[in-house]
Amino acid sequence: MHKPTARFLLPVPEQPIPLYLDSAGFNEFQESISRPDGYPCYHWLQTVAGAGRIRMESNQYILPPQHGLLLLPGVPHRYEAVDTEWSTYYLTFDGAMVNEIANTIGLRFSSIYHWPEDSSFRTLLASVVENCSKNQDITGLDHSMDVYRFLIELKKHGKVDNQPSLHSLKERLLPLLQYLDSEYRDPDVEMSDMAHVMQLSSRQLNTLFRKAFGYTPYQYLISLRLLKAKQFLIMDRNLTVANISSMVGFREPSHFISTFRKSEGMTPEKFRAMHGSPGL
């Protein structure tokens, strides 16, 4: 049995912040809505029970449980219950950097999302609505964290058009990540070795890895080597740059230095000097 309808309209923060929560709530009996001019903020609608019919940009969709709709500002839409009872959670949000943040994490289009029944995303909106009922946040900062958490969790668990979620992609790639974490020191690790670990072709692995992380497995390996190098530079000052270079999988110190400079904007020596002694 679901809790009764609860709706919260939040004040717009006086000082600009990257994200703010405009409204959130739970509708035990979702009413029909028609917005020919769209909604002025980002809008999320999630089915809890029953099902809704969504009409958006001349397309029609059904929104059953474990499904939600992300609408970008200004997108014309309408929705109504398919069954006699349709229960939903919703939230609307905006902010000084909302477009940049949404675009950066790949939420660029109005889309229908779905997620596994056992996903933690299933109860996220309930916690957001509960926070609204308990927290009189005049600054908007606490609710801003709720919005950011929602966006990250949607990116992590949400699937669009039967594409795998980021979470499932990363789980699938876990054997490769573990392999690279143990073999990054070996300068002979090649793309063919990585593909063999995953039992995929190099092209298939590249495609899968890009979907999960936005870059290739080899780029990930270089980033991992540089991360390990930075840890050595800071934690063991008796190690020379040449020592560290070979320890993290570079054949030549000159290649290591040029790669480090390109990534960090400074030489390994300058990076070490800038970070002082361990513990400081």
UniProtKB/TrEMBL annotation:
One of its GO terms (molecular function) is sequence-specific DNA binding. Keywords: DNA-binding, Transcription, Transcription regulation. Pfam families: AraC_binding, HTH_18. SMART domains: HTH_ARAC (SM00342). Residues 174-274 form the HTH araC/xylS-type domain. InterPro entries: AraC-bd, Homeodomain-like_sf, HTH-like, HTH_AraC, HTH_AraC-typ_CS, Tscrpt_reg_AraC-type_HTH. This is HTH araC/xylS-type domain-containing protein.
